[in-house]
Amino acid sequence: MTKLSVNINKIATLRNARGGNVPDLLKVATDIQQFGGQGITIHPRPDERHIRYQDARDLKSIVYTEYNIEGNPEKSFVDLVLEIMPTQVTLVPDAIDAITSNAGWDTVTHASFLTEIVQEFQRKGIRTSIFVDPVLEMIEGAKKVGAERIELYTEAFAHQYGLGNKKGIEPYVTAAVLANDLELGINAGHDLSLDNIQFFSQNIPGLLEVSIGHALISEAIYLGLDNVVNMYLQKLK
């Protein structure tokens, strides 16, 4: 069964819109795990427009499943991760002004930098995943820099699936086959939803984990958080 890690950035966005502590991020993280969620993902950015660095610290004592911290490995992010020591760090090359992640790493051009960062995290026992497009050269590059996992950037799949084009899964299947051959663990995320998650997970060999935030929280507005978490778990079986 593929694990579900819930990205709670949108909960922090809602809280920050009014100040104060409503909704309570820590309670939501606790509830998600009690509802059956198998991990909590956060993606702190330098401007702290949703997840704050202090949130990342506070969640350390709350998350008893898998704690995954995503972000661009600039110095402040690296220092934060080394302080918290999460289960997994996912390296994402998002620009400071990006609304959301919009591309995977060029693991060839940035091989030297990524190798250094990966080794720094691994020395502390933190599993390292690299966010990549379903491009074979980039997956091979992730293996060469020493990552234990990749996270497939799934926006292109989700877009094509929404248009009714199920062939949009094909590059991801090919990428997964290569990753399995290279003994790279496979995670995935971005624009996955209740509509497309079952098709995606059933067609990607060796899919270990999906990280879902925006769609899941949006769906929960209508269906309830407990219900939605369990709907995803059923589709991921």
Automatic annotation (TrEMBL):
<comment type="function">
    <text>Catalyzes the complicated ring closure reaction between the two acyclic compounds 1-deoxy-D-xylulose-5-phosphate (DXP) and 3-amino-2-oxopropyl phosphate (1-amino-acetone-3-phosphate or AAP) to form pyridoxine 5'-phosphate (PNP) and inorganic phosphate.</text>
</comment>
<dbReference type="GO" id="GO:0033856">
    <property type="term" value="F:pyridoxine 5'-phosphate synthase activity"/>
</dbReference>
<dbReference type="InterPro" id="IPR004569">
    <property type="entry name" value="PyrdxlP_synth_PdxJ"/>
</dbReference>
<feature type="binding site">
    <location>
        <position position="45"/>
    </location>
    <ligand>
        <name>1-deoxy-D-xylulose 5-phosphate</name>
    </ligand>
</feature>
<keyword id="KW-0808">Transferase</keyword>
<feature type="active site" description="Proton acceptor">
    <location>
        <position position="43"/>
    </location>
</feature>
<feature type="binding site">
    <location>
        <position position="18"/>
    </location>
    <ligand>
        <name>3-amino-2-oxopropyl phosphate</name>
    </ligand>
</feature>
<comment type="subunit">
    <text>Homooctamer; tetramer of dimers.</text>
</comment>
<protein>
    <recommendedName>
        <fullName>Pyridoxine 5'-phosphate synthase</fullName>
        <ecNumber>2.6.99.2</ecNumber>
    </recommendedName>
</protein>
<feature type="binding site">
    <location>
        <position position="50"/>
    </location>
    <ligand>
        <name>1-deoxy-D-xylulose 5-phosphate</name>
    </ligand>
</feature>
<feature type="binding site">
    <location>
        <position position="191"/>
    </location>
    <ligand>
        <name>3-amino-2-oxopropyl phosphate</name>
    </ligand>
</feature>
<dbReference type="Pfam" id="PF03740">
    <property type="entry name" value="PdxJ"/>
</dbReference>
<keyword id="KW-0963">Cytoplasm</keyword>
<feature type="binding site">
    <location>
        <position position="7"/>
    </location>
    <ligand>
        <name>3-amino-2-oxopropyl phosphate</name>
    </ligand>
</feature>
<keyword id="KW-0664">Pyridoxine biosynthesis</keyword>
<feature type="site" description="Transition state stabilizer">
    <location>
        <position position="151"/>
    </location>
</feature>
<comment type="similarity">
    <text>Belongs to the PNP synthase family.</text>
</comment>
<feature type="binding site">
    <location>
        <position position="100"/>
    </location>
    <ligand>
        <name>1-deoxy-D-xylulose 5-phosphate</name>
    </ligand>
</feature>
<feature type="active site" description="Proton donor">
    <location>
        <position position="190"/>
    </location>
</feature>
<feature type="binding site">
    <location>
        <begin position="213"/>
        <end position="214"/>
    </location>
    <ligand>
        <name>3-amino-2-oxopropyl phosphate</name>
    </ligand>
</feature>
<feature type="active site" description="Proton acceptor">
    <location>
        <position position="70"/>
    </location>
</feature>
<comment type="pathway">
    <text>Cofactor biosynthesis; pyridoxine 5'-phosphate biosynthesis; pyridoxine 5'-phosphate from D-erythrose 4-phosphate: step 5/5.</text>
</comment>
